[in-house]
Write a structure and sequence with these properties.
single chain, alpha+beta, 14 strands
Length: about 350
């Protein structure tokens, strides 16, 4: 049996992105509209992206825990659950969200056209929870002035970090994603001396070199977000984007992290907000406030292609007769480098 093709979770980082989170209304007929979009999404992306193939337009569609039960039922991704708020020195809030659309391109107009067409298709069946238009800021820097995403895995390492394999064979080719919208107090941050900022982040500001462990504070952001289990570092793929509204004095970072298990991202967040050990929290949070937080499951592109408008959930075939084994054909494959879904018929870390 052919392997499930992942959505473009590990598409190349781009200069523009739109993050759209919606909830689905409960009126009759809403479910059929959403299910129809699932099956048509790849064709929609291809049609718009064909206007400029070098624009590398892509879209990832993810579902929250409640939405998965509503649309697809059983079987269920084994690690999918609502985002768990975290209360420590600071608060990681949990906010509503049934569907996430993560749209990326080198051109904002392509992103905008796609999100416009998606909303035209969904019509009045959804309510927008959050929409953020992200942009690349100078040398891949955050608005706080530091390069963002330096330690992202690439190529096969990115696939291994994000794409589910034999640990949940029914959903091989899928992924998990957590999103958080952070607002920065840039006035206070910019009053902090550069050397102190570097200790908070764990890297030099100008050259983007990681501080030596001998001088790096244990509360540094990149120290707390490094997760090691059984001697192996557990990686995620971040595609964070700066955003802002200068007229409103709003400046922020949209965090988006993909992983083959939400546990590794959740542990990073616990370390940041509670501390490792408790109390040794991420001092970056003294200047950056999380105002959203949602967990989604990203099914494979193959799964989405097979969604129909009927009430019956699409079957998720076990690619191996032995549930505890998986053959080479069912291993996740690296999506095409152009960021497309790869169906013929149809990348922070704050440093």
């Amino acid at each position: 049996m052919p392997s499930a093709i992942p959505q473009p979770v590990v598409a190349q980082l781009t200069r523009a992105a739109i993050f759209l989170v919606v909830t689905i209304k409960s009126e009759p007929g809403c479910d059929a509209v959403v299910r129809a979009l699932c099956g048509d999404l790849a064709a929609l992306v291809r049609a718009i992206g064909f206007r400029d193939l070098e624009g590398r337009l892509s879209c990832v569609m993810g579902f929250g825990s409640d939405a998965w039960d509503r649309f697809f039922g059983q079987p269920r991704p084994k690690d999918l659950h609502p985002f768990r708020e975290i209360r420590g020195r600071h608060h990681a809030v949990a906010t509503p969200g049934d569907i996430l659309f993560h749209i990326r391109s080198s051109r904002m107009d392509l992103c905008f056209e796609l999100v416009t067409q998606i909303m035209a298709r969904l019509g009045g069946v959804v309510a927008t929870t959050d929409e953020v238009h992200g942009f690349n800021y100078f040398d891949d820097r955050d608005l706080i002035g530091f390069v963002d995403g330096t330690e992202n895995p690439v190529e096969q390492a990115a696939v291994e970090a994000t794409i589910i394999g034999e640990e949940d064979t029914a959903f091989a080719g899928g992924s998990y994603v957590i999103v958080q919208k952070y607002l920065h107090d840039l006035k206070r941050w910019n009053e902090v001396p550069t050397e102190e900022q570097e200790g908070i982040v764990g890297r030099t500001k100008l050259s983007d070199i990681e501080l030596d462990d001998a001088v790096k504070p244990s509360s540094a952001h990149n120290a707390l977000t490094t997760i090691v289990e059984n001697g192996k570092q557990l990686e995620i793929v971040r595609d964070n984007m700066p955003f802002g509204d200068a007229g409103k004095g709003e400046f922020g970072t949209y965090f988006i992290g993909y992983a083959r298990s939400p546990h590794r991202i959740e542990q990073m967040l616990v370390n940041m907000f509670v501390g490792r050990p408790p109390g040794n929290y991420d001092r970056l949070l003294d200047f950056s406030r999380a105002v959203t937080g949602t967990l989604f499951f990203v099914p494979s592109a193959t799964f989405l292609e097979n969604v129909t408008t009927g009430e019956t959930a699409p079957s998720v075939a076990d690619p191996s007769p032995d549930k505890h084994k998986i053959d080479d054909a069912s291993q996740p494959q690296l999506p095409p480098p152009d960021g497309s879904l790869g169906i013929g018929s149809l990348k922070g870390d704050w440093t």
